[in-house]
UniProtKB/TrEMBL annotation:
Belongs to the triosephosphate isomerase family. Its EC number is 5.3.1.1. This is Triosephosphate isomerase. Signal peptide: none annotated. Transmembrane segments: none annotated. Pathway: Carbohydrate biosynthesis; gluconeogenesis; Carbohydrate degradation; glycolysis; D-glyceraldehyde 3-phosphate from glycerone phosphate: step 1/1. Substrate binds at N8, W9, K10, G156, S186, G206, G207. It is found in: Cytoplasm. Homodimer.
Length: 224
């Protein structure tokens, strides 16, 4: 099975024209591409993802986007619980748990992000987040969730997680939940393969997914 590579564009690029250009350059990789909500309807693509969703299907939730709406636009995957949502938008594990259930209800494949901050113990944080985020999700649905281990200190810093440490976290997650596990945090084309070699099923790429040439290299290196 080829590693699953996911591009999380975050709040980039700043115009639809640039988004179209980037999309057309990287779509041939077959990677999952998660553009900002406002660009999604401009793209027809089998591997489309979103960066978040609401826990409700519709209603008075100003500014929110529902899993149903995403499904209707051809979206297949949705990132849930990214640390930037947890930190900047004060998302709690309780909210993340509801979002996961709503996404599964709408037949989207959730990519659940977990990971520790600088001075936290990885295993303590991973255990707590998995327990609270997955609370009450039925076994048959649980299997559909992809977990992304993204140590917060490694995101956008260039300070990527060494492969031995990453391997430890991956094995710990796998013991708790047998699902696919991706690695994310300062991934570039030089280190992409290291994570696959230590057992990760794929990568969640932020900054480097905005550079078509570098992203194509990441996919190629990870998948060979
Ligand atoms: P960077 O690759 O920019 O470190 O971001 C990782 C990430 O947050 C992907 O979701």
């Amino acid at each position: 099975m080829k590693p699953l590579i996911v591009a999380n564009w975050k709040m980039n690029p700043s115009s639809l024209a640039e988004a179209r250009k980037l999309f057309n350059e990287i779509r041939k990789t077959n990677a999952v591409i998660c553009p900002p909500f406002v660009y999604i309807s401009a793209f027809k693509y089998i591997q489309l993802g979103a960066q978040d969703c609401c826990w409700k299907e519709e209603g008075a939730y100003t500014g929110a986007i529902s899993p149903q709406m995403l499904k209707g636009l051809g979206v297949k995957y949705v990132i849930i619980g990214h640390s930037e949502r947890r930190i900047h938008f004060k998302e709690t594990d309780g909210m993340i748990n509801k979002k996961l259930k709503a996404a599964l209800n709408s037949v989207l494949i959730p990519i659940l992000c977990i990971g520790e901050k600088k001075d936290e113990n990885p295993e303590t944080v991973i255990s707590r987040q998995l327990k609270e985020d997955l609370d009450g999700i039925a076994e048959k649905d649980l299997k559909k969730i992809i977990v992304a281990y993204e140590p917060v200190w490694a995101i956008g810093t260039g300070d990527f997680c060494e492969k031995d440490e990453a391997k430890k976290a991956r094995n710990f997650i796998r013991k708790k939940i047998g699902n696919k596990v991706l690695y994310g945090g300062s991934v570039n084309s030089k280190i992409a393969k290291d994570y696959i070699d230590v057992g990760y099923d794929g990568l969640l790429v932020g900054g480097a997914s905005l550079n078509a040439e570098e992203f194509i290299k990441i996919v190629k290196n990870a998948q060979t």
